[in-house]
Amino acid sequence: MSRLSDDFLWGGAVAANQVEGGWNKGGKGVSVSDVMTAAAHGVEREVTDGVLPDRYYPNHEASDFYSNYKEDIKLFHEMGFRCFRTSIAWTRVFPNGDEEEPNEEGLMFYDEMFDTCLEYGIQPVITISHFEMPYHLVTKYGGWRNRKLIDFYLNYCQAVFTRYKDKVKYWMTFNEINMIVRKPWKPGGIQIAEGENKLQTMYQAAHYMLVASARAVKLGKEINPAFVIGGMFLHPTSYAATASPDDVLASVKKLQEAYMFLDVHVRGKYANSYYHFLERNELIIETQPEDALILQEGTIDFIGFSYYSSSVAIANPATQNKSEGNEISGYKNSLLPASEWGWQIDPVGLRITLNWLYDKYQIPLFIVENGLGAVDTVEEDGRIRDDYRIEYFRRHVEEMKKAVLEDGVELLGYTPWGCIDLVSAGTGEMKKRYGFIYVDKDNDGKGTLQRYKKDSFYWYQECIRSNGETI
Ligand code: BG6
Q1: CA-326 nearest atom, ligand 1
Q2: Do 230 and 366 touch, CB atoms closer than 8 A?
Q3: What distance in Å separates the CA atoms of residue 148 and residue 372, rounded to the nearest whole number?
Q4: Which atom of ligand 1 lies nearest, measured to the CA of 186?
Q5: Domain spanning 9-465: which superfamily?
Q6: What is the average pLDDT score of the chain?
Q7: Which end of the chain is flanked by fewer CB atoms within 10 Å, N or C?
Q8: Which residue is closest in CA terms to ligand 1's atom 10?
Q9: Contact 31 CB / ligand 1 (< 6 Å)
Q10: So where are the chain's domains?
């Protein structure tokens, strides 16, 4: 094979909570992201006790995709997108999460948005839950601590699978499901209390989410056998800090923790190492007799994953500096440059990741997030010269192509993160921009919300037009 296939899914990715805004429009309920304040590089976002009147919540208006989606999708079309990854806001469909009937106005919004995509020949690629669940499910039930969440999630899946069965083919059950055992608020609505056994809570929630994901896959296939349903996984690409076998073992262990999720997603059962991990840490996970069969029957069709950077693992952490990165980070690699937010830039790491994942699981992969968060400057004439972003993408696309064309990895597509500027999930900042399209808004929420095409817009347009040949 010398070229990517003609149906390779070039596109872009966002999440409802970070781009839509309209947080209380159309009957939408409050979500876990609506109670997170803005922070800054190196500062954690605060989770407030409900929405407080004197605080600024950046996700409330975000990039106002809710009002601008028609124009924005038109711009995606201009770039040549063949697909658009976004999520459905659970709170638009079930504002509290425990209602029996969905909110019609919320469903209509996605009907119209998906129709707009389809009119332009853009396939929606939908994450069912992306860092956004009803806040009510947290206050009343404790979030994914509670097994009841499985039924609420399934009720939500039933509503969206049925409603969009002829509009959406590609689905993913949970965004970055493995984040639940590291930072459980955004994916699971869980805040760890003082003195609580953190591992116990997080691994219990992980089991419930894996059961929910498997049931969703089975349900989706019953509703439309042509659905292609994947999982979504944060790949914490990690190398040994040195050739010392102890460092190599540390990197093996780090990946093992993460792969536990894919073992279940892809093979329908936990690996032995998981049970040993539970035993070592004295964790007792509540399961039901039917869980084993549910996991077996709900395996995924493809692995969607995010890849931004890599880090190193080390046996003796005292000797190395921590690196920053996408929630699950590690230690610094002196051979790699880093972004302004400290995320180490490693294009070859993308090729390595694709090879690791494909060798291990042998099912199609989908790069559903990749990109560079950077500060952009609008010049007097309105131009944004983001050559640093172009360089990042050029080198990653190059390595992605090598993985497909030279190494034989089966890859469905590539959707760079934050194709239009949006609120950072980690910091709540606007100035950490990923987009090909600039949105005029600052960290304090000021700005016209006007859209501008960055230089990278034209670069990506040409990349897609040439099917990845001209980069
Ligand atoms: C991934 C998430 O973790 O990384 C996105 O799926 C997130 O929601 C992205 O925005 C980039 O992280 P950040 O913190 O720069 O927004």
Answers
A1: 3
A2: yes
A3: 38
A4: 8
A5: Glycosidases (3.20.20.80)
A6: 96
A7: N
A8: 425
A9: no
A10: 9-465
